[in-house]
Amino acid sequence: GQNIDQPTEMTATEGAIVQINCTYQTSGFNGLFWYQQHAGEAPTFLSYNVLDGLEEKGRFSSFLSRSKGYSYLLLKELQMKDSASYLCAVVDSNYQLIWGAGTKLIIKP
Amino acid sequence: SQTIHQWPATLVQPVGSPLSLECTVEGTSNPNLYWYRQAAGRGLQLLFYSVGIGQISSEVPQNLSASRPQDRQFILSSKKLLLSDSGFYLCAWRTAGYGTQYFGPGTRLTVL
């Protein structure tokens, strides 16, 4: 079967750094997406990794290790507006997206 | 640029009533189209996807159906709604076979 695992909920402090992990077991791999979803809104695209390594985009970075079936999203200099759910999705061998259940990130002042 | 529209934004329907949600995409041709449902506090559940006009794949058995009458139009329907159909319905598009998936604003459906 196909499986994406993320922590259900994480709490962090404003101004700090947080790392959200995602592990996957899928039939094939053609890339991994991270999305942000604020409460009551649609998910929005954050990052895409298909090769091993770190991709940096402003305060957000995403890392991928294909051999370990592992990715993380790193958020720096946390702001209150970063309070949201973060969804990990893997593109499988049929080019379909397999979604994790999401990690709810709570930022405290 | 590409835009995806969904309507209505919110809907309250009685049990047993019919449903029709519409999604249209602008600025792209032959997209893959998707319908998802998200229950409160839960992840995304893929309901249907379509790779072309009249081509619908169903991921979960349910009392919902989907149709794609035009290249950039995707419709989600039900003849009789159940309480369990309540949720946040999201339409999404993606360039065929690859690329980032983009979501519409969603429809929040409450079945009473």
What does this structure look like?
The complex is a heterodimer of chains A (109) and B (112). By secondary structure, chain A is an all-beta fold. Chain A is 0% helix and 57% strand. Chain A has no helices and eleven strands. Chain A has strands at residues 3-5, 9-13, 18-25, 32-37, 44-49, 53-57, 60-65, 70-75, 84-91, 97-99, 103-108. In chain A, strands 2, 4, 5, 9, 10 and 11 form a six-stranded mixed beta sheet that branches. Chain B is mainly β and 112 residues long. Chain B is built from no helices and eleven strands. Chain B has strands at residues 3-7, 10-13, 19-26, 32-38, 45-52, 55-58, 64-70, 73-78, 87-94, 101-103, 107-111. In chain B, the strands form two sheets. In chain B, strands 2, 4, 5, 6, 9, 10 and 11 form a seven-stranded mixed beta sheet that branches. Classes of the chains: A mainly beta (109), B mainly beta (112). Chains A and B meet through strand 5 and strand 9 of A and strand 9 and strand 10 of B.
Estimate the mean pLDDT confidence of chain A.
96
- Largest beta-sheet details of chain A: 6 strands, mixed
**Rg of chain B (CA only):** 13 Å
**Radius of gyration of chain A, CA atoms, in whole angstroms:** 13 Å
Number of helices of chain B: 0
Instruction: For the record, give the distance between the C-alpha atoms at the N and C termini of chain B, rounded to a whole number.
Output: 38 Å
Give the CA-based shape of chain B: globular
Order of helices and strands of chain A: EEEEEEEEEEE
Low-pLDDT runs of 5+ residues of chain B are: none
Task: Note the beta-strand portion of chain A.
Answer: over 45%
How many helices of chain A?
A: 0
Specify the structural class of chain B. mainly beta
Note the overall shape of chain A.
globular
Could you give a short account of the major beta sheet of chain B?
7 strands, mixed
Low-confidence stretches of chain A: none
Let me know the number of strands of chain A. Answer: 11
Helical coverage of chain A, percent range:
under 10%
- Tell me the helix content of chain B: under 10%
The termini of chain A sit apart by 41 Å
How much beta of chain B, percentage-wise?
over 45%
